[in-house]
Amino acid sequence: MEMKLAGNIRLFRKQRGMTQEQLAEVLGVTIGAVHKWETGMSTPELGLIAEMADFFDVSMDILVGYEMKDNRLDSITARLSRCINEEDPEGLNEAEKALSRFPHSFDIVYLSAALYMIIGGKNHDDSQLSRASELFENAMVLLPQSGSEKLSEITIYEMMSNVRMLQGHGDQAAELLKKHNRDGIYNDQIGLLLSLFCKEPKEAQHYLSEALLGAVSQLISTVIGKAYAFTISGNPDAAEDLLLWGMRTLEGLKQREMTGHVDQSCGYLYVLLAYVRLKKGRASEAGDAAQRALELAKRFDASPNYDARSYRFIDDAENASLHFIMGRTASESMAFFVRLIADKQLTALWERITENEHEKD
């Protein structure tokens, strides 16, 4: 609810062409009283509000400026989301009102928890963070109500861990994530907590090495998928820039003088780069890229190495290995990837350079 009585008294008085003194005389009050009403320093009694509404020929609702908020569930969740986006501390009052109205709504409980976490974290306010923790616990119970594909137990456990971390309990935050670390989903966060907050570098390295390997795998898939999507949607320049960036990043992670997963990964990127350059009408440069892909594949096949430690910084992955499954050799995998792209120009280019290599051999 919002009221605009002070401004409306001033507005309607001026519309009538009246001074504060003249309005005071009509109402039988002092000029000072009118001045205080118009500046919001005081509020007239109900009888005077009714008298002014009658004098200005408007309803009391209009004079007061009463606007009732839309308190339907969708409207309240939208307001809470806006408070989160704006990091508005006044939203905490809105959250408590919403919780009293809809205590068993997942959306209300989850958004209120998130708002308490954000505001409490910024204020270093333990009571607000404790309220966030309580609400996240409630949200977990109500999770089956959620219709969002983006929200799951994974999200809520992460939020609960964040609250514990903000309260200075890094060990509790790490233990919570360890307990629910299915498929290594929290490896990076557990490693960070163990390293930075718990001062346990040895245990942290195990989680962080696995997290880095996962990040590399995601990087390769993302770069290939996005570069191809850029190309077929008519933006080959962006595709080329992305592929070159991906290659530089992977090369920076390669153990020098050691074949490994990086060589084969970069080989795929070079195959795709050849395709992109063909689409840009740069056949000679496309040939160079395809030739480089074949060289990397042959180098890997000459000395296969599936050990994850072919990547730099993977110092705690003794039993980890990395494999491509699109062929018995790296060369077969490259050929399979070319067939997947299914472009006549690229297929012809690949056949030509592989035939030339066979003739050299």
Topology as H/E string? HHHHHHHHHHHHHHHHHH
Binned strand content: under 5%
Helix content: over 70%
Unreliable sequence segments: none
**Integer average pLDDT:** 91
Number of strands: 0
**Amino-to-carboxy terminus distance:** 83 Å
Which class best fits the helix and strand makeup? mainly alpha
Report the principal-axis shape: elongated
Number of helices: 18
| Major beta-sheet overview | none
Rg, rounded, reads: 33 Å
| Whole-number tally of structural domains | 3
Write up what this structure looks like.
This protein has 3 domains: 5-64, 434 Repressor (Amino-terminal Domain) (Orthogonal Bundle), CATH 1.10.260.40; 73-199, Tetratricopeptide repeat domain (Serine Threonine Protein Phosphatase 5, Tetratricopeptide repeat), CATH 1.25.40; 206-360, no CATH class. Helix 8 packs antiparallel against helix 9. Helices cover 71% and strands 0% of the residues. It starts with a helix and ends with a helix. The chain is mostly helical and 361 residues long. The mean pLDDT is 91.
List keywords for this structure.
361 residues; 434 Repressor (Amino-terminal Domain); mainly alpha; 3 domains
Overview in brief:
The protein has 361 residues and is mainly alpha-helical.
Blueprint (SSEs and pairs):
Blueprint: H1 5-15, H2 20-27, H3 31-39, H4 46-56, H5 60-64, H6 73-86, H7 91-101, H8 106-123, H9 126-142, H10 153-166, H11 170-179, H12 187-197, H13 201-232, H14 236-252, H15 261-279, H16 283-302, H17 330-341, H18 344-360
